[in-house]
Write a structure and sequence with these properties.
Layout lengths: L14 H39 L3 H10 L1 H15 L7 H6 L1 H6 L2 H7 L6 H9 L5 H44 L2 H12 L3 H40 L1 H23 L1
Helix pairs in contact: 1-2, 1-3, 1-10, 2-10, 3-7, 3-10, 7-8, 7-10, 8-10
C-alpha cells in the first residue's frame, strides 16, 4: 500500500467527518464509476424488467434489491484503486470481475446480507482478504469506535432511498395527474396495467440505486480507512516519510555546496 499516492489528506477524523469525506470523494470520482456502474445496473434492470413482464413481480423486485452486494463489490473495487490515483477503465473493471466477486461475495450475499454495517465490513474481506478468526478480530477492532456510525450509514441511506423514490413517483403524478387515477384502478382491478406499474417501480428503484449506492459505499469505505488510520497510525507514518524525504533533500543540497 503506497500511502504517498493517496488523493486525500491522510489524518485522523471523527467518524462523521470521515463519512462526509466519502460523499465528497464520490463527487470527484463519479466520472470513473459512471460507465461500469451504468452497464452493470442496466444489465440487472433488463433482467428484472423481463421477469416482471413475465409477471414474476415479487421475484424481480427482491432480486434487484438482494444482489446489492454485487453492485457494492464493483464500486468498492473502483474506489479502492482510484483513491491511490489508479483509475481503472471500464474494460479494466469487467476484466477483473473475478477479483472483485470471488472474495467474500457469498458471505455478503447470505451471512451479512442484512447487516446494517455492510459498507463498513466489506473492505475487510474484499480488500484485506481476511477469513475466519482473523476477520472476526479485525471487525471487533474496527467496530470498537465506529460500529454505531457504520450502522448509521445504512439507516440514513435507507431513508434517502425512500425519500428519493417517493419524490420520483410524486413527480410522475404531478406532471401527469391522470396516471394517479389509472394507478389506483389498475391496483384495485388487478388488470394488465398492473404489470406496467410494477415495471415502472423497478425502473424508479433502479434510478434511486444508480444515484445513491456509490455514495453509500464511499461513506463506508472512508469510515473504514479512517479507523485503520487510527489503529495503525498511517498519518504518522506518512508524516515520517515526508520528514525523511525533506531531510535527505536538505542533506543532498548541503553536500553539493
Amino acid at each position: 500500500m503506497n500511502l504517498d499516492k493517496l488523493i486525500i489528506v491522510l489524518r485522523q477524523r471523527n467518524p462523521w467527518e470521515a463519512m462526509d469525506l466519502g460523499v465528497k470523494l464520490m463527487r470527484v470520482l463519479w466520472p470513473v464509476i459512471l460507465f461500469p456502474w451504468f452497464i452493470l445496473l442496466s444489465a440487472v434492470l433488463i433482467f428484472a424488467l423481463f421477469m416482471s413482464y413475465q409477471k414474476y413481480w415479487y421475484f424481480a423486485s427482491l432480486f434487484i434489491w438482494w444482489i446489492k452486494p454485487v453492485y457494492e463489490s464493483m464500486i468498492l473495487y473502483i474506489l479502492s484503486r482510484s483513491i491511490f490515483a489508479e483509475y481503472p477503465s471500464t474494460s479494466d473493471v469487467f476484466s477483473s470481475i473475478s477479483e472483485w466477486l470471488k472474495t467474500g461475495i457469498l458471505t455478503t450475499l447470505f451471512f451479512w446480507r442484512l447487516s446494517p454495517s455492510r459498507s463498513f465490513n466489506m473492505p475487510v474481506h474484499q480488500l484485506e482478504g481476511l477469513k475466519g478468526r482473523d476477520r472476526k478480530k479485525r471487525l471487533l477492532a474496527l467496530h470498537r469506535v465506529s460500529g454505531s456510525h457504520s450502522m448509521a450509514i445504512t439507516i440514513i441511506g435507507v431513508h434517502f432511498e425512500y425519500v428519493l423514490a417517493l419524490t420520483l413517483y410524486i413527480l410522475i403524478f404531478y406532471f401527469a395527474p391522470d396516471t394517479s387515477v389509472e394507478f389506483l384502478k389498475s391496483m384495485a382491478l388487478n388488470n394488465e396495467e398492473e404489470t406496467i406499474w410494477y415495471m415502472l417501480g423497478i425502473v424508479i428503484y433502479g434510478v434511486v440505486l444508480f444515484i445513491l449506492e456509490p455514495f453509500y459505499i464511499a461513506a463506508g469505505f472512508m469510515l473504514y480507512l479512517n479507523r485503520r488510520t487510527q489503529l495503525e497510525g498511517w498519518d504518522i507514518e506518512l508524516d515520517f516519510r515526508k520528514l525523511s524525504a525533506r531531510i535527505e533533500s536538505q542533506a543532498e543540497a548541503a553536500n553539493r555546496v
